[in-house]
Specification:
Elements lengths: L2 E5 L6 E11 L2 E6 L6 H27 L3 H18 L3 H16 L3 H4 L8 H12 L6 H20 L8 H11 L21 H12 L8 H16 L3 H5 L6 E2 L6 E4 L9 H9 L12 E4 L2 H18 L3 H4 L6 E2 L4 E5 L2 H15 L8 H11 L10 H8 L5 H8 L3 H11 L14 H14 L3 H21 L4 E5 L3 H11 L4 E5 L2
Parallel strand pairs: 9-10
Antiparallel strand pairs: 1-2, 2-3, 4-5, 5-6, 7-8
Helix pairs in contact: 2-3, 3-14, 5-6, 5-7, 6-7, 8-9, 9-12, 9-15, 15-17
Length: 505
Amino acid sequence: MAYKERINPKTGRKEYKVRYYFKADGKKKDSETAWFDSLEHAEREAKKLKEMKEKADRDKTTQRRDKKLISAYEEFIEYLKIVSDKDETNTDKKEWQTARAIYNNHMPLVIQDTKIKDLSVNTFKIWLDSINKKESLGGGYVRLCRMNLIKFNIWLNQNGYYIEEGTEETIDLAIRNVKVKNSLVHNRERSGDRNIVSIVDLQSITKHYIKKEYGLGDFRNFYFYTLFMTLFFSGMRVEELTGLQWKFIDLRESVRSIYIKNAISKMERVEHALERTRKGQYKTKNTISIRTIPIFDFYYDLLKDYKESFRYEYGLTKAEVEECFVFPNIDQNNPYRFMRSDQTLRELKKVLEELGLPNTDLQMFRHSCAMFLILSPPEGLGYTEEKVIDYFGHQDTSMLRKVYARLSEKEKADRMRKTFSDIYKPTDTDEKTTEEALKEKLINRIRGNNESAKMYARKNRIYNQIRKAMIEGKTKYYYMEKDVDIIEQFIKDNGKTMEFIKEEE
């Protein structure tokens, strides 16, 4: 160990400090002790400090290595974001955007929970192979993804995630040796990865949450159930749903409207979006995006029920709720912070995979709403193009033109028969398939009187909500005047398990 010596100006005695070396974060580092009255004392202190710092590094490394791959990749994305914010070039921004796209769309579920200590060459092979096999992705884009995984591997090593020597080099070689499609192979139409969500698909997605433990009595289940229903039937853009606050939803019987005044892009910094929203500095995609959306009867009562559950979950007054985001960051349990669209997309992808449904993204719910309004029953509501344009508030009808372009020949023929029904009246002798019957039933529910079904659903939700509250040790349950019969029936069936408090409407 190297050392320094000096004469203390106050005591006139010799003092010593020792420079020592230690390993941390995969790098050799050095530091110095304080001044001591003997070299032996300084050396003992140096040895002690070296051991202490290396132990702390080992503990830190153990924590890192127990981290899941998906968490480490989230950190990597944050790192790229910081770099892109500092650099004026588009290169770093593109790297960050590529990483976000991989995170949202191209990270197989089978590897997401892999711990860093269990990472292997095969993990990265599975990852890159899954990207390469997607027909909708061109060769150039796949190679861009491969370069991103190479940089992620380097980042893992630089940040002390790897212990064994040569891990980075071994994985790097394996990634580079994966045969990917030629860069001259272009993307096919992305519709393969962005499928329209049918009314039957929507029912499957929402039923997924009803079937989970406590059903819609669990707020998280009710949250996603309402989110996907609202996204489908409102036709809102994803960024509009993200920025939606309760004060922009008027649930009065005579109004029933959603006012689009604010939108939060996934590219906007969270804190910046929160600050401008707090100040009332709202923005939308363009001026014509500021519009009013009428609330379908079908999900009007749903939104009312969800708002009640929202208040119950977060313990807020009616006035406090108005400033909250309708779909806040449920993972942070904070009603004043919005849910990022990539978090919502991850939930959707997980459900689609579990249900075996075609892949899609959140923005396609808007296209799906347009298609649902356009298609003739039992596929949709069969509205005219003029009505659909009014609903979406479009002067630029480019999105609707894309939707009309997706209509199949059969669907176009059905619409033609309807248009010219005065001169063309074929006899439909085909028997209804099970799916067609289901579609017809769903359409009738959307258009008709569903009071009994709504009451059953509300009773089921309240019962489950009470049961969950009991298990969580809560002693009070607040209910509305209109639910008196449900509460009385619950008490009759289960006894007075807690204090039931009636709130004013």
